[in-house]
Design a protein that fits this description.
Structural class: alpha+beta
Radius of gyration: 38 Å
Largest sheet: 4 strands, antiparallel
Oligomer: single chain
Helix content: 40-55%
């Protein structure tokens, strides 16, 4: 109950005027900021939802940017792979032409000149740099060239030619988040894209009595495989086969050495991460040598070469006038290389499509989540402006009534 006093009307009027001013200020702030919630106490439940929605919206925007960036990279890479595929088709045409037996050794040497220029173009594309300045085919070593070239004297030529092409990148992959806890794996390894034949390593050292003396870790194609103390060569081969890498391991029945064969066209990457299991079995050199050229060639037979090796073999055979080699092994390796490039081109295209699908999904999610944010945090302009006008009318009426209640002025007391 209220105590009636001479100050009651004045206090009650002042209190209501202040409340009206506060409510008007809230509506003016909402109109100015276009947000319904200025403080958590305005609507605690909606504020909690709004914070989560805005956080998720920020992540969705980042997912879209990630997917769009990936699709751009895939698009650029596809152009270089497709161009190399066209070059390889031309190289194969020259190989078939040179193998039909109707051309003289001089004609073959003239063809070798074009093959050599096409080889340079292949290497140039393999060392391509994207719009961001990063190497496209060097794995995660994006600041260096993917392939290094060694020049040398080649029989049949009067000048130094490209003799060896070595991969300088790595086989590490990047995982890019394109949705909540969903990642796209990016593999830019050039020794997979520009490889021709499946590679095979046949150990010449008898390891049937070999046994691991300590726990160690080996790395095969970028995947770590743990070797336990007491494991023999058969256990090591089984662990490699179960690791999920595109390499099949076994024991050669003739040499009793460890054999490693790729299940697709790529260069095997071997490393002793800790311990020296692969070195003890004679597969790789000691830790002073780095992959992929750390294979112990004195104790391991290596077969399978790169795309560049097959083109170099064709050029050298043409310089020698060896039509038999051209029509046999050389064309076979070129076919392997073309097939691998086609496979890598298809894989790149599928990765591009998946990245674009993720970008499109993120754009759709962005629209949906923005609607949720708007529902929880934005104001209804029509309702808010109407409420503000009503408050202004009420405020004017209150002031008018207060003026009538206290109509006396100083002049009334001047006699």
């Amino acid at each position: 109950m209220h105590r009636i006093s001479s100050q009651f009307n004045n206090n009650d009027t002042q209190y209501n005027l202040r409340r009206q001013e506060v409510n008007q200020a809230v509506l003016n702030r909402q109109i100015g900021t276009q947000h319904r919630i200025g403080q958590l106490r305005d609507d605690p439940i909606a504020a909690g939802h709004l914070v989560r929605y805005q956080s998720y919206l920020g992540r969705v925007n980042q997912f879209e940017k990630n997917a769009q960036t990936l699709s751009d990279q895939f698009n650029v890479r596809e152009g270089y792979i497709d161009q190399n595929l066209q070059i390889m088709h031309r190289v194969r045409e020259l190989a078939v032409t040179g193998a039909n037996g109707t051309y003289t050794p001089e004609d073959l040497k003239n063809m070798a000149v074009e093959v050599n220029e096409l080889l340079k173009e292949l290497i140039q594309n393999a060392n391509a740099v994207g719009p961001d300045g990063n190497s496209l085919f060097a794995g995660t070593r994006t600041k260096g060239i993917a392939f290094d070239v060694e020049m040398g004297n080649v029989p049949g030529s009067n000048e130094n030619l490209i003799e060896v092409v070595r991969y300088k990148g790595n086989v590490d992959t990047n995982k890019i988040e394109v949705d909540e806890n969903q990642y796209l794996t990016i593999d830019n390894s050039g020794n997979k894209t520009f490889w021709a034949e499946p590679q095979q390593l046949i150990g010449q050292r008898d390891v049937t009595s070999w046994q691991a003396l300590e726990d160690s870790v080996i790395n095969v194609d970028g995947v770590d495989i743990s070797i336990k103390s007491g494991d023999n060569v058969y256990a090591v081969a089984a662990k490699i086969n179960d690791s999920g890498v595109a390499v099949k391991a076994g024991v050669d029945p003739v040499t009793n050495g460890l054999t490693l064969s790729t299940t697709d066209s790529h260069q095997i990457w071997l490393e002793d991460k800790s311990g020296s299991a692969l070195n003890q079995m004679g597969i790789i050199e000691d830790a002073s040598q780095f992959p992929p050229y750390n294979v112990n060639t004195s104790a391991v037979k290596v077969s399978g070469g790169s795309l560049f090796d097959s083109v170099i073999a064709l050029r050298d055979a043409m310089l020698k006038g060896d039509q038999e080699s051209i029509g046999g092994r050389v064309i076979g390796t070129l076919d392997y290389g073309i097939n691998n490039l086609t496979t890598r081109l298809a894989k790149n295209g599928s990765d591009y499509e998946r990245a674009m699908n993720n970008a499109e999904r993120s754009r759709t999610n962005e629209v949906n989540v923005t609607a949720l944010v708007s529902r929880e945090g934005d104001i209804d302009f029509t309702k808010t402006i109407t409420d503000l006008k009503m408050m202004e009318i009420v405020n004017q009426a209150t002031l008018s009534n207060a003026g009538k209640m206290y109509s006396s002025t100083l002049l009334d007391y001047m006699r």
